[in-house]
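input
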Amino acid sequence: MRIQLRQGLNALSFKQPLSNEQRSYTYEAVFQPEAVQGQNGAFTQGLPGDRVQNNSATTHVVALGQRRILLIESRKGEHQLLVDRLKTVGNSKYTVHAITADDLPQSKAELAVFLSNYDSVLLANVAASDVEAGVVADGRLGGVITEEQQEILRSNTHDQGCGLVMIGGPNGFGAGGWKGTPVEAALPVDCEIQAFKVLGKTGLVLIMHASEMADGNRWQKEIAKLAITKLSSYDEVGILHYDWGKHSWHIKLQVIGGKKAALLGLVDKMLPGDMPDFDGPLQMAHDALVEPARQLTTRHIIVITDGDPALNNQGILGQMKTDKISITTVGVATHGPSEDTSLMKIARQTGGRFYKVTNARALPAIYTKETRLISQSLIFDQRFQPQLLFRSGPTDKLPETLPPLFGYVRTSLKQSPLVEMSIMAPKVGEQEFPILAYWTYGLGKAVAFTSDARSQSSRPAWDRDWASSDMYGKFWEQVVDYTLRPTESGRLMMTTEYHDGKVHVFVDARDAGNRPLTDLILQGSVTTPSPRADQAGKFELHFEQKNSGLYEAEFKADEAGSYFINAQSRRPVRKMEKGKEVVTQELDSIRAGVTIPYSPEFADMESNVALLDRLRAITGGVTYTEDELGALVKSPSAQVKQALAEQVFRAGLPQFRELQPIWYWLVLAAAIGLFFDVAVRRIALQPSEAAVAATRLWNRLRHRAAPAESSPQFIDRLQSIKQQVGASIEQQRAARRFEGEEKGLAPPLPGTETAAAPPPPVRAPSGPPAQEEGADYASRLLKAKKKVWEERERPDEPKGTSG
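output
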């Protein structure tokens, strides 16, 4: 359209014929200015000062029509029987579209618009991945849903009320790598089994060889973390690498359990070296995996390398195959066909797979695929009889005895009062495994069916008996009906306004007679351009009734892109059933979208003069009007240039001295000084002893033997002096005893004792002095030893044996 705009708001209208297909439509308007007409009527080409960022706008229109179901599968036609049954049941009330995971839009904005066309989404035997798979030797690792797509799927259920059904199979639930993903958060089951003692365990060993690819070592750490995250807590994992000239365990093979955080921290410290050969690490991995105490039912090794390490012990591959240990080799930037052939041979001889990688972004997808393939302990593929616990919702009108199933993926119920399990597999010990579970998640509903729906007339699968029974179509019709978005009756009308960084949402509620509905309970949610699970509560709408039947809510929108808004109402309705008044909840919903095509800063068309004035006043600058600046530019004299130069290129800011406290340094110096003051006063050093110690230390440092003269002679002299001192004291003792006898103090003769006579004094035996003479003996002996020491420290002086 070629039009002439006037000052202010310009309203334009156009007609766009719609196709017969009922779906959501996106409209975009782009403004392309050609010329501007001045006050004198003259035209100027283009638009001076045009901001191209705000020259476009988009909006979404949601069209009502037949209920639409989206089925996403790994391979085209894998669930054709299920699609055909859904198309025929209920008088064709559904429009069913079956696509593969590769057909989903990659852009988050496009995927959000695409999913808004459907009322329920079925994920049928589809695997999860963390990044795009890339191209490898086996072909493209397709059929996966990236993490960004998973977040949109989660938000589409939680915030927009769309149904979500996950159907099992070899690529479903935990076997498909859905553990820890945004989609798992929306499911009523966890993809990990809480009790592992009744199941076989998986052992995985990662052999890390230094990668010559750009950022290769970082990618090795990422994939090691990915393997630990994807494995269940009851599985075992270990990491081997080449470090300090030898093969060693960086993480010994061990049960993950509750040590995930610690193991992830150890991975960050890993630095793989250039491994010379595979013999050592393969033998170490083999010996650890076959230990009987581990009781591993699945044993697997993943090797990432450039192909340089040699394998001299070819017999180790035979041991691996005998002990049912498979090896997957990943060739990263290999140097030629010979390395690829060698790695391929290792993989094929042990029943593993070989990948040739030229882009590091393919590594996480490979490890996701490998960890999912070895999680066979999650799959039960034998005939069993499912048990119907009650009839309600998806299980309404089912027979009391259900046909048998031939397999399912083990999961655990979420610990939530909202979760219902209506069909269960036989118990194993005390562990319960759900076959059908469902709950309400946000504004939507989610169902988990852990068996599969892949059976065809020529290809039976786990649900072969269900597919051939009369209840098959009815069962899936009830499952889909339970998850559909609430119907829009037309009694609610939603409008949106955006200003000041916020979106205001208005809902006008009226009944069939155009009377306002004032007793509604409204709740709503918003899907943002970049939804995240941790922001789910941030974008919940809380409506307030501002007028009769007019409800209003608002949310902050500071991100450019499309916002999808869903509001659901509950209204108590009284009905008469079997002669009794029954109060039921009448549900209704309304959806709309609002688009912020550009950042809000580009919406300001005028300068913020007040802010500029404040900045000029704070900084001491100068204000130039547009006319003044234009005049200066047209006639730049030398004086004007100098003035501008002084304003723009000013001298540096004045220097200031910043005072810093130093008291803590003074306290530290005082403490150190106090320590040395006490040490000088209390610690006494003998110069002679210090000299001897220094001489001894110097001889030891120079590896010189100590002088041979001192030790024997020194001991002999000490013993001689001890004997002399003892003999001298013995003589004094004998002299005192003799003097006592002369004074009449001798002991009485035998037979002349009297009762009153005191007992004779106790005398010490010959040898060491008695107790009363011990102090004197010790003092004299100490003086003699000291003298010998002094003579020993003066080797140049003549030695004597003074008593």
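quick obs: Residues 130-142, 749-757, 761-772, 796-803 have pLDDT under 50 and may be disordered.
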